[in-house]
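step: validate -> pass
step: tokenize input -> pass
step: predict -> running
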Amino acid sequence: MPEGRIHFLGAPLDPITLEQAVELVDGAISSRRPTLNASLNAAKLVRMQSDSELRESVEVCDFVTADGVPVVWAARALGHHVPGRVNGTDLMELLFAHAAERGYSVYLFGSEPG
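step: predict -> pass
step: emit ->
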């Protein structure tokens, strides 16, 4: 989906902004294209080193965002331009607001009762 995907410390990362992430989702909805997003934080990055199932699930995502300043700093320290963090919770809240404005329905899948 987004151009310019980088790979660092064994993980993919798309250097995009929060607004660009919303645009990607909106484009996927408009074209009725299923889209997967992963939010990459430091804990997930470390766990991916030894958890091949997690690593594979992140690698197949259409876009992977930097969910935390440590990921942004690490990518920048390794010479990659990452515009900033895209917190997963912030993205979800913006997507809910965007869905309400556009009249999109939202379906939540997963979690446990309570």
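step: describe -> The longest helix spans residues 88-102.
step: cleanup -> pass
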